[in-house]
Design brief:
Largest sheet: 13 strands, mixed
Number of helices: 4
Distance between the termini: 38 Å
Helix content: 10-25%
Number of strands: 25
Strand content: over 45%
Order of helices and strands: EEEEEEEEEHEEEHEEEEEEEEHEHEEEE
Structural class: mainly beta
Length: about 350
């Protein structure tokens, strides 16, 4: 192993513990799917030595490069006399929940707002598009930013994501960095898995709106020991009083895949034209195959979520995946004697 620094300190303490000689099974995960960077590791117990506590600061460098800075959130001790530790980077604090009213503002402004509320150091790529005012009630900061990032992508085509850079939360545009080396049959690649699926696809979308007649009630009066009681019966859910307005659109893939139907309830005030447009939008989003590509390769610290790398795999050309840059959605680094990485790639076919 080539660990340059693996250190910890309990906040408020002056003692900085060097853990390089007692740490094993170091795994680092970065993910674009609105989650914190994670560092897991095992510590061999040493008499009168370091004992990890939740809240401890963790620093990890590999071959001199800054990899991870965060805090311990989980400690497990078992009969093998070792500690299993989980630490998260600064993005963990975007799981905090809050209720906010955003004025019309840019994505970078909203990111800065929630980063300050989360109490983390931050840096934002400047964005120009103005997102309409929005009420966010009892949502996590991740969820608030996810909605804003989606709106910017739909309006401008620009893609943004969140990442941690040595304790600083950052709003980045992807791909953040294009790697200047190739992952392929003769370059770093040790294995791959490609999958295509229609399990979650839909080629028929139906929007329904429930129509109810006015509530009708039947009332009867009875006497019980001189007292009058009223029994009320509601027929609101009676089939006689309920009907549906339906708008349906279908795609050409029905002839190939069979009928895969998805139903959504319309908003109460939606008219037929709005229902039809909503059906078309959903069909466009759902009438497609999903693709996934997992790569296994020799370790390189530039292979992190949000970066892109050229992929050249000869056997994938026949199914339409040619030589091209591919975005890394999730990266799992295993810092062992044989440092390796597993990557989940974004596939566009």
């Amino acid at each position: 192993m080539s660990i340059t620094t693996f250190a910890s300190r309990t906040p408020g303490s002056k003692t900085l513990w060097d853990l390089r000689e007692i740490v094993t099974d170091v795994k680092w995960i970065t993910d674009m799917n609105y989650s914190a960077g994670t560092l897991t590791f095992k510590l061999v117990e040493v008499d009168e030595g370091y004992t990890p506590y939740n809240g401890d600061d963790i620093w990890f460098r590999w071959n001199g490069k800054k990899i991870f800075k965060g805090k311990v959130f989980n400690v497990k001790y078992s009969d093998d006399e070792a500690f299993d530790v989980t630490a998260y980077d600064s993005l963990r604090y975007f799981k905090n929940q809050d209720s906010l009213v955003f004025p019309t503002s840019t994505l970078s402004q909203r990111f800065t707002t929630v980063a300050k509320l989360a109490g983390v150091k931050h840096k934002a790529t400047k964005t120009a598009y103005k997102i309409p005012a929005e009420v966010c009630d009892s949502k996590s900061y991740f969820d608030m930013l996810k909605t804003s990032i989606t709106r910017v992508r739909r309006a401008t085509g620009n893609h943004y994501f969140l990442a941690d850079n040595w304790g600083v939360s950052e709003l980045r545009k992807y791909p953040y960095k294009k790697c200047n080396f190739i992952l392929g049959d003769k370059s770093l690649l040790t294995g791959f898995s490609f999958e295509k699926s229609i399990d979650d696809a839909a080629n028929v979308v139906r929007i329904i709106k429930e129509n109810k007649k006015k509530k009708s009630r039947e009332t009867s009066t009875a006497k019980t020991k001189g007292k009058k009681t009223k029994a009320t019966k509601s027929t609101t859910n009676d089939p006689k009083n309920t009907s549906y307005t339906k708008t349906t659109v279908a795609g050409d893939s029905v002839a190939i895949w069979g009928k895969l139907q998805y139903i959504e309830k319309a908003k109460d005030k939606a008219n037929v034209a709005q229902m039809k447009q909503r059906a078309k939008d959903l069909l466009k989003a759902k009438n497609k195959q999903t693709f996934s590509l997992t790569l296994k390769a020799l370790g390189n610290t530039d292979l992190v979520a949000g970066n892109s790398v050229p992929v050249q795999i000869k056997s994938l050309r026949q199914i339409g995946f040619g030589n091209k840059y591919a975005l890394i959605k999730k990266a799992t680094h295993n810092f062992t004697v044989d440092y390796n990485v597993e990557l989940e790639m974004r596939v566009v076919m």
